[in-house]
Amino acid sequence: MTTQLPPRAFVVARPQSPMPLPTPRGPVSDELLRLLGRRSSDATDLHAAVGRTLAAPSGSWLEDDDVQVALTCMYELHYRGLDGVDDDWEWQPDVLTARAALERVVEAELRERVPVTVPQGTSAAGVAATLFALTGADDAPSVARWVARRARREHVEELVVHRSVYQLKEADPHTWAVPRLGGAPKVALMEIQSDEYGAGDPERQHAALFAAAMRGLGLDDTYGRYVDHVPAITLAHPNVMSMLGLHRRLRGAIVGHLAAFEMTSSVPNRLYGNGMRRLGLGPDVTGYFDEHVEADAVHEQIAGRDLAGRLVEQDPTLGADVVWGAAVCLALDGWWARHVLARWDADETSLRQPPR
Predict the structure, then answer these.
(1) Are residues 223 and 242 in the same domain?
(2) Taking the complete model, does pTM exceed 0.70, yes or no?
């Protein structure tokens, strides 16, 4: 006899809308968006623009608005897609070829600017000790301490606009690593990601909590709404995360990146929450940041030992990549912090345009 089960109650999630098309910031992003907006697959002009741009570097690729906007659009094809752009573009060979050319110069710059450190042995404990020492020695300026002590409401709003580029898809770039891992490291990653995605409760997803904080500040929580408002260095970090996550050869680096990301999250989020409470902001805004104080204190142990450490135990050849990925995380966050604090200390906006 078959037992009749009661109907299950489902939570109706909000639609997962694609990212609005950003405004081009140079020849590469202009030609890319022209290509994606038409049915023709002739990418001659895109390849020419990429070639000319890469042949005449004008500074850091991580701070190049044109390159970073182009990469944001290229990677977004693998996430929610772009508004009005056919999903078939995700695997279009010419777009992938252009992306690979941009990725090569970005990775080369990171390899040059971020040194590679070999972990203290290949045991889980040794790898974790190396990562904790690396994050503990980080001397980048702290946006969180600035917010806790000095921020006005407009600074909080700017912070949230910057963070929205990644936080509205929080955890997704690291999830690309799941099928590339096995055994204990995969279990550890899934334990972390389960919490990131709400542990079974759609309303507790960290991206949903961040969207609630945006609404609490009177900001628009539309996915990708503020890409046009942020500088290249803000776009660079989620772009690098996507690059590390989408390439199997960089699986060690995306694991190290996540470890450093979790190890440097709990204290800053406590400071952010305190700064917001100082300004009279309530739980609708601070809830996201408060959630990360306790959760990431647990995650840092799992990420350092059970994820990164066990991965290097499985494959010692990945040790240097794991530590490099962690160092890349710290470097990108530090470069972004220096940009933001230089503007705020000068009583200027850190955005390209105001959020309203």
Answers:
(1) yes
(2) yes
